[in-house]
User: What shape does this take?
Amino acid sequence: MAFIKSYSFVNYSDSSYGINEEKQFLSDNETLENNFFTAVYRKQNFNYPKFFKMDSASKAGFLCAELLEKDFPDERENFGVIMMNNFSSSETDKNFEKTICDIENYYPSPSIFVYTLPNIVTGEVCIRHGFRGESSFYVFEKFSPEEFVNLVNDSLEFQDYVLAGWSEMNKNEDLKAVMFFLGKDSGLENFNEETVEKIYKQC
Assistant: This one.
């Protein structure tokens, strides 16, 4: 049986983020001074300069993992990462297209191009936290607690811990992400479809 040891979330639409049931909101001044993800980063006093080069999807995944870091074990050899979303890398694809669509002003950007792969976020998280287990990324039309739980349980059969996250972007390009730190020993709650769906909806 798998257990949720802790979870985190960031929600662009209502300027909220948090760990477990602790939900915090950014003020209008904080989000006006910075964009949402940068505002969360500065509020938490994180220190990882590469963050500012990331696309929004990677920033969301990075922040969720960073919020959970205090719960991670020292041994990370057998620690896997699974991420899923409903938009692949579409936001970055559009930004990269802008750099190549004008023949008169053609300037393909390598720094943007690298994020046109949706699984870059798993690499960013693994590098930052030293995870050396298996990582994978899936793109689904919508969030499915059943699919989420099945994939994570399969991964936990041969790994000690898994960090699993889902992010989604709506039509207004507001991004919401939730991430679970999971293990086989005791935790906050059992890891099952009902619990995952409850947490997903309240974040």
